[in-house]
Amino acid sequence: MAERSTAAVDVADNSGEEPPAAEAAKATADGAEIQDGRAADGPMPESDGEPKKAKATAPTAAPELHSGHKLARRYRLEECVTRLDGFSSWRAMDEKLRRAVGVHLLPADHPRARSVLAAARSSALLGDPRFVQVLDAVEENDLVYVVHEWLPDATELTALLAAGPLEPHEAYQLVSQISQAMTAAHREGLAHLRLTPSAILRTSTGQYRIRGLAVNAALRGITSETPQRADTEAIGALLYASLTQRWPYESDAYGLTGLPKGVGLIAPDQVRAGVHRGLGELAMRALANDGATASRQEPACTTPEELAKAVAAMPRIRPPEPAFTAPPEYQHTTYQQGSYGRPATHNGVTTATPLAPLPPPPPLQSRTGRALKWGVAALLIAALGLGSWQLADTLLRGNQGSTGEHQTPQPKGDDTPAKKTPAPIAIKAAQEYYPDGKAQDTAGVPNTYDGDASSYWHTRSFVDGPEMKAHYKAGVGIIYDLGSEQEVSAASIGLRYAGDHTTATLYAADSMSSSTQVGSMKKITAGTTSETSLTLTAEKPVKTRYVLVWFTAMPMSGVDQYSGEGYKQGVTDVKFSG
To answer: Taking the domain 3-148, which CATH number applies?
Structure first.
């Protein structure tokens, strides 16, 4: 099943990652440079993880293109947003798919053209939706261009911090999502080396996405001998800035004021009162590469994976409670019983006045009243007689039954035990299953059994469907660890998207490894649905510790924060019973 990517770009405004075109030209002419968020006009602290700028070479002039120019008869350039160091960045329109995209352009003979192409193609292979996706990387007509997604509804972290520091829950989400995403990237051998506030985007749904993976550094010739330490320190700087609204170095950068000169790196709670203690300590542990002292004698975090584990070990920070707004005070109406339609005028003003209470009805005439009383009495006597007759008949039937006549046979005792009600089985752990080596959303797996229906694991978006053809991808799934062998007889699966149709199969697996093929597993049961829930029940319980939920068909769904329109599915809640 061919995978579909969706759209944004690695561009910046005046307060972001790069200066606008006019200022960039001046900055290049003056020799000014920004590297890893520190101004190059002052000394930069050195560390083992410090990204290093490649040796200066004579910059090749950026291609002289204009709005309206079309690349590959498809990408129409609309607005130049950056022109710097021999390359330019544009907002463009993909006329084939009718969507906005972003394009980086540089001459084919640019000294970094080859490395930019290699970085873009490597980043595109990752396919992780937490990163702004590379859609195309081409060399033609003496030009090299890289096409990126464009996220019009996303906001740069630079803009968020301009309004003030983030509240603890938001800062927790930031460091959690970014560290997990970079862990996945480094596992595939990809580093960012330019994790700055302008490289972090927050979507309207609260998800954080990273742009410029590998490409931003390649465009500037930035390398590092210890890329994991460099990216970890950069995440620590982002967290520090989110908590304090200050850049954790002496130089000002990204619209943020730097720390006082000569005092070194100080703890976030010494910069701003009320900083969350756990998050502040976490920022210092990530920045320990640059001379900070880890709080409470805990070791420094030197890789994104160590940082992600440290975040996961923290007590979860809940979102703030919504502010309570008192309902408007109840207003008594001026309506009174009997006043409707009775206007009265006082001093020229019409007001409602109550009507006088209606008089009681006149008493019945004596002869008519007596007749009615006798009629009611007769009815009561008749009713009592009928009731007595029914009671006697019931008692008589009961006596006959006691002598064996008209006796209803009582059911004999059944030696077969009552059917056992399935009991819920707790899930201890889970892991994505991808025998073809292409994961969907490894970080989202815990969302499928956390009891929160608003969180979910999602697949990518595929062009073909709903059946996942074997010559593209056999299926996608998650293996659940029940802690010990259990009798599994049923499962309920909460789904993100409805539509025609979703097919899932339960298999008994011997481990959580993706190296075991589905064909060697024992099938428990299968089912298909067009709704947002699927209940699977086996004819006979199967004893197993590991259960694979394997999806082989997914419905068509529209654009969301993770992917574009296509065949896809998300899992919100999985429960087993047996």
So the answer is: 3.30.200.20
